[in-house]
Amino acid sequence: MTEATEKIGNVSQSRYEQIVAELRQVVEQQSQGSFTIGDRALEIEPIRPRGGVADAQWTVRQSLMRLAEDIGLTFRRVESARLTASHWPKEHRQPGISFTIHRTLARIEDEEERFAALRTPPAGRTRWTPDEAKRRVGWRVDNPETPQEKITEIHHLARDEEVAATVTTDFLKRPQVAAKLSPENKARAVEEFTRDEAAATTAATNLLRRPDIAFKAMNDDTARSQVNQAQVERSRQAREDFERTSPVAPAVRHIDHTTEFLDLVTACHAFVAAAGRTVPGLRDRTLGDDERTLVHQNIAKVRATLDWIETAVDTGKVDVDDELARLLRGE
């Protein structure tokens, strides 16, 4: 292997290893310094049991704020060092492991589990890394590797709604991405995108223009019923609008009434004519009991219907009472 292939960045492999060794010593010194800051902050303001009362003259925050100002650090830096030191008694701190990793693993609540975790790097690793420590406590990592970590990172970057909308649109323009969605997830996505009525109307209209989709949709009883109701409602609204706004509406209403009258007279005439053709054929013929029962049931329907027609003609009331409704349903 040549020297060129052994380079890391602009330095050779051997020089890189020298730099790592040197910087590990620096990090160790920084870790010791951070723990010292934390220990001294703990000395000034020990961790008290919940509900414990400090000296009324100084709150914890006031004490730590003064300490931070006097040593030239931020309050957050001092507070973090104090909390980390409180989770790691001196006998459980590990040389060679950075203060950053100690601070992250301090999130493990159980003490024994926390101390054991620090002594045991993840499987396949010889050392703890910041990302491995974050994985251990369930935090978002800096360098996502697993699919779930990458998904979490995308969610984090797309917290802004405009960014999320743009990313989603771009993703769904990629056929290979859309193809991997299950039918259920595709349906859920369509439902989410069509919560807006205008978008839903446009999508439904475009989809129903495709004969294969329209045919399959109409196989669903609920969908078919909703379409039929929509057509009836649309016709009703159109008629109401016409009657309210059109100057020829009165004349049309008269024609409608005439048409209804003619339809009713025609229905009665058709019934009388049909009966006149059919009844003579019963001469010298005896019907069976079941046949007579069926005919009598239908005669009862006819009588009730005739009464209904008379009432509608005389009073204009076309409501159907419960008894007639049951007869018409064959109950």
- End-to-end CA span: 96 Å
Rg measurement, Å: 43 Å
Count of folded domains: 4
Number of helices: 16
Poorly predicted sequence stretches spanning 5 or more consecutive residues: none
Content of β-strand: under 5%
Oligomeric state of the chains? Answer: single chain
Structural class: mainly alpha
- SSE string, helices as H and strands as E: HHHHHHHHHHHHHHHH
Strand count, sense and closure of the main sheet? none
Portion in helices: 55-70%
Mean pLDDT: 81
Number of strands: 0
The shape, in one word, is: elongated
Question: What can you tell me about this protein's structure?
Answer:
- The chain has about 325 residues and is mostly helical.
- It has 4 domains: about 5-140, no CATH class; about 180-245, no CATH class; about 245-280; about 285-330.
- About 70% of the residues lie in helices and about 0% in strands.
- The protein contains 16 helices and no strands.
- Helix 1 (about 15-45) crosses helix 3 (about 75-85) and helix 2 (about 60-70) crosses helix 3.
- The longest helix has about 30 residues, at about 15-45.
- The chain is elongated.
- About 5% of the residues are buried.
- The model has no long low-confidence stretch (mean pLDDT about 80).
Topology:
Elements (H helix, E strand, L loop, with lengths): L12 H32 L15 H12 L3 H13 L11 H7 L5 H9 L10 H8 L9 H11 L3 H12 L2 H5 L3 H11 L3 H12 L2 H7 L3 H25 L3 H30 L10 H27 L6 H7 L3
